[in-house]
Amino acid sequence: WAMPEDNLHSNEMIGNYGSWDTCTAQGFFILYGYFSCIVYNAVLSVYFLMAVKYSWREGQFRKIEPYCMFCTMGIPAAVSMFLAFTKSFNPTIKWCFIQSYPINCEKYNDDEFECLRGEKGTLYQALFAIGPMIIGFFIISFCMTSLYRHVRKIERSSQRYRASGTPSSRRMTNKKTKQVFKVACWYVGVFIWIWAPTLTSIILNKGFQIFSYYLVLINAMLLPIQGFLNALVYSRNDVSKFMNVAKRRISSSLFS
Questions:
Q1: Which region, left, alpha or beta, applies to residue 93 given φ > 0 means left and ψ of -120 to 50 means alpha?
Q2: Closest to 101 measured CA to CA, from 81, 80, 84, 87
Q3: Which of 27, 87, 114, 186 could be a cystine partner for 233, CB 3.0 to 4.6 Å?
Q4: Angle between helical axes of 131-163 and 168-208 (0-180°, round to 10)
Q5: Cβ neighbours for 231, distance < 8 A, ≥ 6 positions apart
Q6: Is residue 91 classed as helix, strand or coil in its secondary structure?
Q7: SS3 labels along 182-242
Q8: Structure-derived torsion over alpha carbons of residues 100, 29, 95, 115, reported in degrees to the nearest 10
Q9: Please, what sign has the CA dihedral across residues 243, 245, 248, 253?
Q10: Number of C-alpha atoms within 13 angstroms, CB side, residue 57?
Q11: Whole-angstrom distance, CA of residue 38 vs CA of residue 30
């Protein structure tokens, strides 16, 4: 509904009752949430790497916390405001996002397709939509690979220590390291599961001019729940304990 009612592509849209201001607002908040979510997950993967592999303490993380907050909130806000001021948020048939208007007008050099808004839409899409996602995937993949190699090295060392009568405290340290590694895997798994359809949709649309309604539907269902899934990952031990207690109580009430 936020897309402007009086735009050149109205015949291809349904329920567009908004204005250019509502379109800009929708694009602003979509990009801000999209950008900040990717940066947040990348920063989170770096946090796990530093905590597990390099044994960073809370005091060390507090020193860089302002910079992390700036990356996750300040940069996305600045980029979104820049694109709003340059009128780069325009209708994309589905919703308002980074797009030239009329759609793909920058690909033509005649007066019929002269750009009225967002003439650098393709460039800004590559820089501020596709770029952060690809960089985020690379950062997370690098951090996860480093974590995996580190945990594997610890497991091999712990086997030698057990054979030589290692104290139990070292085994407890290895256990905690594995637990942190599992949590990191869950976080990254959620990120990949959520964002893989979006990346696939962008590649198909921009690279091969293929539009998939099913991918758009999947994106619409998955993207809003990433925060909820991250919360479940963070509290999964508490959730597991609660479920076990609930099962025991239900079993005792049924068979008592």
A1: left
A2: 87
A3: 186
A4: 160
A5: none
A6: strand
A7: HHHHHHHHHHHHHHHHHHHHHHHHHHHCCCCHHHHHHHHHHHHHHHHHHHHHHCHHHHHHH
A8: -10
A9: negative
A10: 1
A11: 12
Strands 96-98 and 89-91: antiparallel
d(CA 188, CA 45): 7
Average pLDDT by consecutive 10-residue portion of the chain (256 residues)? 76 76 92 89 87 85 89 93 93 84 75 79 88 88 83 73 54 62 76 82 72 80 80 67 56 56
Q: CB neighbours of 8 closer than 8 A, spacing ≥ 6?
A: 101, 102
**Rounded-to-integer distance, Cα 245 and Cα 131, Å:** 45
Residue 169's alpha-carbon distances to 161, 162, 172, 241, in angstroms, are 11, 11, 5, 25
Report yes or no: 232 and 240 within 8 Å, Cβ to Cβ.
no
| Measured CA distances, 119 to 3, 99, 102, 110 (Å) | 18, 8, 9, 13
Do residues 189 and 217 make contact, with C-beta atoms less than 8 angstroms apart? no
CB-based contact 133:38 (threshold 8 Å): yes
Task: Give CA–CA dist 67/72, Å, rounded.
Answer: 9
Q: Assign 3-state DSSP to the chain and report helix, strand, coil percentages, each to 5.
A: 75, 5, 20
Question: Which amino acid, residue 210?
Answer: I
